[in-house]
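Consider the following assembly input.
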Amino acid sequence: MGSLFFENLKISLSAVFANKTRSILTALGIVIGVLSVTLMGTLISGLDRSFESSMSWLGKDILYVSRYEWFSDMEWWEVRNRPRMRTEYVDKIKEKSKYALAVSPVMQRGASLSYEDKETITEIFGTNEEYMETISTDIERGRFFTASEDKVGARVTIIGGGIKDAFFGDEDAIGKYIKIDNLKFRVIGVLEKQGKFLGLFSVDKQAVLPLGAYKRIFSKRGWMRLSVKVPENKIDEGLDEISGVMRQIRGLRPSEKSDFAINQTKAFESQYNRLKIAIGGTGFFITLLSLVVGGIGIMNIMFVTVKERTREIGVRKAIGATNGMILSQFLMEAVTICFFAGLLGLSLAYVSSIFINKIFPSTLPLGLSIFSILISMVVGIVSGFIPAYKASKLDPIDSLRYE
Amino acid sequence: MELINLSDIYKIYNVGGEEVRALDGVDLTINNNEYLAIMGPSGSGKSTMMNMIGCLDTPTSGIYHFEGEEVHIMDDAQLASIRNRKIGFVFQTFNLLPKATALHNVEIPLVYANIRKEKRIDMASKALKDVGLGDRMHHKPNELSGGQRQRVAIARALVNNPSIILADEPTGNLDSKSGHEIMEILDNLHSKGNTIILVTHEDDIAKRAKRTIRLFDGKIIEDEISK
């Protein structure tokens, strides 16, 4: 059957290239289908990648205890009425929990940072000496502050890699004094650079100071969360236990609802998955629609081709082509059109992905590329079948007489 | 040796509720290396007869043996196979594939016979040389004259070494000089031992054959062996 295959391929190629305009117009639906499925894949792969790196910054094994739930539809006033987190909770949790590996309170606000004539507005964080254990970023140079520095409210700070670059360039930042809201702080450490979180905001533009100093200078009250590190394989147990400990601290009776929230990165994940399903679903719908339209186009043009070549079919049958051979010839032709359409769609997607990559890091997934070519060939088989079957069943005598 | 045996063949069509007997009880035996002409006015059943012998059609009733094979009970695939192996068609309108070169046109029956590429090219070029087109193998039909096209068609009919060559008005679309050349080729093939069946309405073409049968209203009314 090998020689027949190559013969069919040759016929198909010559038919496709003999009617270039017609082939391209016919194939447009398939081109768009492949383009949309691959671009959607590119987008999702890009999202996945930035989500993964962002998630690794947050840490899967960290529980965030605060007043409100992430992605919750709770009324604002209900949240407002909940009691605040307090620094004392840190010691209580440590005392009562066996899963808590590290507990760090975090307060956060916007502030102006300056060094010599350079100035920037950014977020500052007040926390304790265990903060580093609850984030995945490392210290690149220098050190973190100690528990006693925290206790005495020492005016020291650890700055993000972005701030360091902006203020000091290639100079060493350690030991230099920067101003936070016009108060002098000594830089004792620089954090590693992380890149942007979900491609949106950068964690490299932050300054971390001891909570003691933060509270004394900026605010005693104000929003606070507790970051609790639990063993990676005991996250659910940790969550239950911390919840129990918090209820005990708040003195809640069993019938009362919890007046705090424990968040984990899982919440982001489910939110993210919802987004992914939305993108994927839309892409899938567009793909399906254009493949169906494309398939109808292919079927239509194949009917025309069979009609046009009725006499050829008659001749081929007279000199010994079986119905199956005619069927395979026309099926091959439909598949060939679809294959080139898929290839065209894929190359357009590849070019687009280069541009997309400039805005948003992403790659065209190889598996999806192969899959999209296969899918377009399947469309060729499905939509080419009826015309090819019709061709195969033509009566040789009538076909030879056909003008 | 007996090649073809048609026995009590009927081909009945139903046209608008009316029964048309295109072949009405035909008996015919054709032996190896015969040169036979089938004649008759239009509507006499000539074409039906040719399609029947060429295994393009099966009879409504009757028995058809081709080299001992029972054609009357064959399905489409078996008919295609017997056409491919045993019958070479030459049509009035040549029926070459316009986009294919002469060589490729001649190769096609061999493709369907599943013969590998190198052997196909050998066989096809030999067949083209035999009809005097060794220097036109890579020309497409529209680059050839009518006579040359018909020679390509003869090469295509010959390439599989068929048992019969079935020529339907082979000179009908040609000027007399080219027609004469084509007939020379057919005569020549006959003298080399091929069996030739001509369908024609021209007496001088039929005269070249050694046997002539005349059809009328689906019946053989004359079966004449000349010389």
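Chain B has a mean pLDDT of 93. Ask yourself how this observation constrains the way the partners meet.
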